[in-house]
Write a structure and sequence with these properties.
6-stranded mixed sheet; alpha/beta; 30% helix; Purple Acid Phosphatase, chain A, domain 2; globular; 17 strands; 22% strand; 2 domains
């Protein structure tokens, strides 16, 4: 039996941006659903964070979520299972109130799709799998006890395990101890958007780019074979974030301009200016980029206010979290730097996804 695994879909991301939702649906309509149909996959497990906002949902996004994802799986006769993630819960200390059960519980109390706000063992074609939702203070004891006593050899969940990368180069120093999961053959999880593993715990990564921290990071979904325990990656070819490095020093227009502009349509573009000696050429480039109707077009070119160390970071046009992390590394502090980095990561994520 083959099970499609997807996680951290974050419907409603970037303050319910229609452009980002269209980008998400491009992946579903052209990659995810066609793959399920072609390979006749009839079971999907969502490993948490279906939606972006914990407190409420935009009705337009809800309509699109129901029609474009949940109902479409139903029309395809796909047995769908959803594990509650931290973005799906109203409270931070309990899963008792969560968006999935509120949105998709029928009048008689049953769920369609299957929803897991508490740990539960589910059998898939003879293989017992422990479905593990977001662990918080309310369910900590029950979850840890289940991890210690279950006979299931495979775990699927929305977990925060110490030591893994949240984003590329940014490791978490909070969460569950790795010792809780060493007894299992495989642990597959959502939550961290960067794909990584240590041979036992597999963070599957988000299906698409949502912030600049995701730039050039692998995106897609997975298919799990219950017989062979093989985990197959299906790549998402669509990118939301692009960088154009501009250097016209001693060069002609053909040497400066990109060979194609179609990939920039309806995306976020950052132009990094290394050398600008021909202003008219630069303006022509911007005109060509604007004709692609980018969601956002930003220019990085003034480095005079930065010292040499920070200037190097800006010249490379690295993502905000990387710049913040390296800035902390260069500071002389008595407090623990990983803790400060974790706080900055949290504040950055909350700022990006600020509730209006």
């Amino acid at each position: 039996m083959k099970i499609a695994l997807i996680n951290d879909t974050h419907f409603g991301a970037r303050q319910d941006s229609s452009a980002f939702h269209d980008y998400f649906m491009k992946f579903y309509n052209n990659v995810f659903f066609p793959y399920l149909e072609e390979h006749q996959i009839k079971t999907v497990v969502h490993l948490g964070d279906v939606v972006e906002r914990r407190k409420f949902i935009n009705f337009n996004i809800l309509r699109k979520l129901r029609a474009g994802f949940v109902f479409r799986l139903g029309l395809m006769n796909v047995d769908t299972h959803i594990i509650i993630g931290n973005h799906d819960t109203y409270w931070k200390n309990t899963n008792s109130v969560n968006s999935m059960e509120e949105l998709f519980t029928t009048f008689d109390g049953s769920h369609e799709p299957w929803i897991y706000s508490q740990p539960k063992v589910v059998n898939f074609d003879g293989l017992d799998v422990l479905m593990m939702p977001w662990i918080n203070s309310d369910n900590q004891e029950a979850c840890v006890n289940m991890l210690r006593t279950t006979k299931a050899s495979v775990v699927m969940g929305h977990l925060e395990v110490k030591g893994f990368e949240m984003y590329r180069g940014h490791h978490s120093d909070v969460g569950q101890e790795m010792s809780h999961f060493q007894r299992f053959d495989m642990v597959m999880s959502g939550h961290f958007h960067h794909k990584s593993d240590n041979g036992t715990v597999y963070y599957l990564g988000a299906p698409y780019e949502i912030t600049w921290s995701d730039f050039q990071d692998s995106r897609g979904f997975h298919v799990f074979d219950t017989d062979s325990r093989e985990l197959t990656r299906v790549e998402n070819p669509y990118r939301m974030f692009h960088k154009v490095y501009y250097d016209d020093k001693g060069k002609s227009a053909n040497e400066v301009f990109p060979t194609s502009y179609t990939e920039f349509q309806d995306t976020c573009v950052k132009v990094v200016v290394l050398n600008k000696t021909q202003p008219k050429l630069f303006d022509e480039l911007l005109d060509k980029l604007y004709k692609q109707n980018p969601i956002d077009l930003s220019i990085v070119e003034d480095f005079t206010e930065y010292d040499s160390e920070v200037s190097d970071e800006v010249l490379q046009a690295e993502d905000t979290l990387t710049i913040l992390g390296k800035y902390v590394d260069n500071m002389e502090l008595e407090i623990k730097k990983p803790k400060l980095k974790g706080l900055l990561n949290t504040l950055y994520t909350e700022a990006i996804n600020a509730e209006s």
